[in-house]
Write a structure and sequence with these properties.
- With 276 residues, this protein is an alpha+beta fold.
- The chain has helices at residues 20-23, 30-34, 55-67, 79-88, 92-98, 131-140, 207-220, 263-273, and strands at 6-11, 14-19, 43-45, 48-51, 69-70, 107-118, 121-128, 141-149, 164-166, 169-172, 175-184, 189-197, 224-232, 237-246, 251-252.
- Helices cover 27% and strands 35% of the residues.
- A hairpin with a 4-residue loop joins strand 11 (175-184) and strand 12 (189-197).
- Helix 3 crosses helix 4 (79-88), helix 4 packs antiparallel against helix 5 (92-98) and helix 5 (92-98) packs across helix 8.
- The longest helix has 14 residues, at 207-220.
Length: 276
């Protein structure tokens, strides 16, 4: 074994500095054998290993060796070229995974917000193509309810009685329903519903304010507003449609895999276990 602790590589003119243990993650790879001087493709010049390959793509190879995960930019498209580079370096689990582009490519995600005002109440319904996103958003939204007396529904002052959180309605894994505002209960009593959306700590009762905060939250989360329309003119239901390109979670590959083992299958199982 080589006694080098720090290794310098010049790949296509791009310089990389790393630990020997990083290059030895896959002992059967050419990078691991390079440290033992077992591969003539890699020339040692002035203390640096020279490799006549693509230096830009090698940066993704290094990221994989350091993390044992595949996480590519949203606009990445050179899957076949990177796969060839992985095969050249003898990193077959990575090459196997790169051949399954559908596991790595960003996916278009659609989300729709429906909003209506009826007297002193506002109603919201959110649909999403990705159940994980809807679940995450549902965890950010909390509805509080409480009794008020002699206060109008748009009062800036919260009820003096304690507000109690109530669960959101979840008709399915892909949507949620909630409302805010006030409705008469008995006499001069009102049932008031406030909405809070993390990380904002305010409790809002005005439907227009809640809508503004909700839309702002989605925009900050990477969604783009693509259209607004009226679904029902009689009920005054407004519909806001959003989309974003969602990057898949980094897929983990086991370092003890050998040529012929299914890196894609194992990484896919890891992704499923993460709920992605």
């Amino acid at each position: 074994m080589s006694n080098r602790e720090v290794v310098v590589l010049s790949v296509g003119g791009v310089r990389f500095v790393t630990r020997a243990s990083t290059l030895q993650q896959f002992p059967e790879s050419r990078l691991a054998r390079m440290l033992n001087d077992d591969d003539r493709e890699f020339k040692l010049v002035n203390g640096e290993f020279f490799v006549d390959r693509d230096g830009t793509l090698f940066s993704y190879i290094m990221d994989f060796l350091r993390t044992l995960q595949v996480s590519l930019p949203a606009d990445f498209s050179d899957y076949q070229r990177l796969q060839r580079e992985a095969e050249f370096y003898g990193l077959y689990p990575l090459a196997d995974l790169l051949s399954q582009e559908h596991l790595l490519k960003p996916k278009l995600e659609i989300l729709e917000v429906r909003f209506s005002l009826q007297e002193m109440q506002a109603f919201f319904r959110i649909f999403g193509s990705c159940s994980t996103t809807v679940e995450t958003l549902a965890e950010q939204i909390t509805v509080f309810t409480g009794q008020q007396s002699g206060q109008s529904w748009n009062s800036p002052f919260p009820s003096q009685k304690p507000l109690v959180p109530v669960p959101l309605e979840r008709p399915s894994h892909h949507d949620m329903v909630f409302q805010c505002g006030t409705e008469y209960s008995a006499g001069d009593q009102f049932v008031a519903r406030y909405v809070s959306i993390k990380p904002d700590n305010r409790k809002l009762i005005n439907g227009t304010n809640v809508l503004g905060l909700l839309l702002d939250t989605l925009l900050k989360d990477g969604f783009h507003l693509i259209s607004t329309r009226t679904v029902s003119s009689e009920e005054k239901v407004g519909c806001y449609s959003f989309e974003r390109m969602k990057r898949p979670a980094g897929l983990t590959v086991m370092a003890n895999q050998t040529p012929g083992s299914s890196g894609a299958a194992q990484a896919k199982r890891s992704q499923v276990q993460k709920g992605k």
